[in-house]
Amino acid sequence: MRILLVGAGGVGSAFAAIAARRDFFETIVVADYDEAKAAKAAATDQRYAAVRVDASSAESVAALCREHRITHVMNAVDPVFNMSIFDGAAAAGADYLDMAMSLSRPHPEAPYEKTGVKLGDEQFAVADDWEADGRLALVGIGVEPGLSDVFARYAADHLFSEIDELGTRDGANLVVTDDDGNEIFAPSFSMWTTIEECLNPPVIWEDGAWFTTPPFSEPEVFDFPEGIGPVECVNVEHEEVLLMPRWVDCRRATFKYGLGDEFINILKVLHTLGLDSTEKVRVKGVEVSPRDVVAAVLPDPATVGPRMKGKTCAGLWVTGTGKDGQPRSTYLYHVVDNETTMREYGHQCVVWQTAINPVVALELLARGTWSGAGVLGPEAFDAVPFLDLLTEYGSPWGIKEL
User: Fold this and answer.
1) Is the dihedral of CA 320, 322, 328, 333 positive or negative?
2) pTM of full prediction above 0.90
3) 179 and 313 fall within a common domain
4) I need a surface site. Which of 41, 230, 243, 363 has the fewest CB within 10 A?
């Protein structure tokens, strides 16, 4: 297996650090627009090489694939670049993985009722071409989406005879402080992506159809395990809701995220001021995207680890009828402590938790344990080998009955 890793930011660098401890691949070519970033990530292992890539250019991606005889393209950049990387992999005859799918576009007349272009629609539109070519595009294989989708497959196969709701619930008790120990606003994941998913209309699957609601709708308090405790969660647009119903029978699918009042207020202000826009504006003779500016002035998520404390939890709350015919309510989850990932890998817990799942998936593909062709989500594969290997990596998952 010869992997092209596109993106050497927080998640890409964590991916490189995790994969360096495994032996299932021949080489990883770390590619980034900033070749110095790529070189830093590539320095973790002698099997790695560093190159420059223009992720907005399918031709650039395809050329690197051909030059380095790439078998698998791993997309670790913001989803605005998904289609160019996806198309570049296809052009070069390589398999493809990403952690967030092609972007959505709200319905022009009724954005908070009807779906427009949904997350992943552009990729699923060419699924037949990928299948005909015998190539696999494994989409949404981060932590969310990704691990929660694996949990959905596991729940359907082993825990439930009928599923009422697949409810992804994510929360954390992470705190970032400045040099004086004062708590500061510093998102632990890409601010560009966070703005995209939090301000777009959230999608819900119910009774065989998708519909949308206003951002931050249906607030609920969810009690997260392993000391995190109660966190208010709200509806957010996310790929799980678009992926799970394609392979797992359920009456309803939702995604709710514990953002907190401060974060929600900041996002609302950004939207009111137009600072969430990706359309470029001219400022003193220079064209810039307001969202790019917001992301640039905040701390780089890859650098906040030493000043961050707490745990992050990703999981799936499943309700329905158990295999015994009785009502069942179960939370399948994965908790990661920032202190642990910083000590053992030098990467903060949120990007590390995102990065470990595609490494596990690639190892299963290399072994032949997972295989397939077309555009497939994690739900299309047997969950047990994935969860067993995740535990073997030293990052066990848990089950809590609610």
Assistant:
1) negative
2) yes
3) yes
4) 230
